[in-house]
Design brief:
This protein is mostly helical. The chain folds into 2 domains: 3-89, DNA polymerase, domain 1 (Orthogonal Bundle); 116-294, Intergrase catalytic core (hpI Integrase, Chain A, Orthogonal Bundle), CATH 1.10.443.10. The chain has 12 helices and 3 strands, in the order αααααααβββααααα. Strands 1-2-3 form a 3-stranded antiparallel sheet. Strand 2 and strand 3 (177-181) form a beta hairpin. Helix 5 crosses helix 9 (221-235) and helix 10 (243-256) packs antiparallel against helix 11.
Length: 298
């Protein structure tokens, strides 16, 4: 019997003799744990201490992709939260990796995301041989590179982008400021847009905004939505493409690549998947390294 199986037996005995759960509930928990252990073994995890938050999230995403409903995924998460909490109580592990994963009241709803291949296809749609194509390519690239909300994208100021350090300063919900790495691909396309296109669109006018439309007016959310829909249609992607889906894809691709969940939370600027405080103490240099290492277009 493996060490994982032994831990499962210990937890089941705890549920039976100390929690007094019903036989049917015990069966459900046992089935969930068996499925989780199979996933860990597939990933080469032999010690339970090596199971971290991103790995648990990957398992939940795998369950969703396998067709498991939201209620079943929610029950599975409840099982894992109870199991890892038990391991902490028994001092078998030092921290609870499932504690960071939030369970919404309506049940676990994992966001639909694009594949890396679909994102690459979409980002390559703008015709960069034309001025507006260069601007649109830069907007799409920045949206995905930094995981921005569409409102954040159109409100990025010219002075908010530091291309030398590859960072963008963003003001999110509640006017909270965060600094996010943008990667080489976004840097190059923004540089191209700023050098060649932005002066043409401004026509000797002054605008504080990075992205402008004709006559120097700032881009609108509606205008960008229209462009995104157009490029998704051209790319032949048979999914509903929204700016927020690209934001979800940004986070999912980083986590699936092995990025630290806390770093991703800071880059997103929210605590939707955490019941604890936001980890703002992470250094900007660490965020830049995480982004460069794990982002598909970093």
């Amino acid at each position: 019997m493996s060490s994982l199986d032994i831990l499962a037996d210990q937890y089941v005995n705890y549920l039976i003799f100390e929690k007094g759960l019903s036989e049917k509930t015990i069966e459900s928990y046992t089935s969930d744990l068996a499925r989780h252990f199979d996933f860990l073994k597939q990933k080469g995890v032999k010690k339970i201490a090596d199971a971290d938050t991103p790995l648990i999230l990957k398992h939940l995403i795998a369950l969703r992709n396998a067709g498991l409903g939201s209620k079943s995924c929610a029950r599975h998460l409840i099982t894992l939260r109870g199991f890892y909490k038990f391991l902490v109580q028994e001092k078998i592990i030092d921290y609870d990796p499932a504690k960071l994963i939030d369970l919404p009241k309506s049940g676990l709803k994992l966001p639909d995301v694009l594949t890396v291949e679909e994102v690459n296809l979409l980002l390559n749609m703008p015709d960069t041989g034309k001025p507006l194509g260069k601007r649109n390519a830069a907007m799409l690239e920045l949206l995905y590179a930094a995981g921005l909300r569409v409102s954040e994208l159109v409100n990025v100021k010219f002075l908010d982008v530091n291309l030398e350090a590859c960072f963008v300063k963003v003001f999110g919900k509640g006017s909270k400021e965060r600094v996010v790495p943008i990667g080489v691909c976004a840097k190059e396309k923004i540089e191209d847009y700023i050098t060649v296109v932005r002066p043409l669109l401004l026509k000797n006018q002054i605008s504080p905004y990075l992205f402008v439309a004709r006559a120097g007016k700032p881009m609108t959310r509606q205008g960008f939505w229209k462009l995104l829909k157009q490029y998704a249609l051209q790319a032949g992607i048979n999914k509903k493409i929204t700016p927020h889906r690209l934001r979800h894809s940004f986070a999912s691709h980083l986590i699936e690549g092995g990025a630290d969940l806390r770093a991703v939370q800071v880059m997103l600027g929210h605590v939707d998947i955490s019941t604890t405080q936001i980890y703002t103490h992470l250094a900007r240099e660490h965020l830049r390294q995480m982004h460069e290492k794990y982002h598909p277009r970093g």
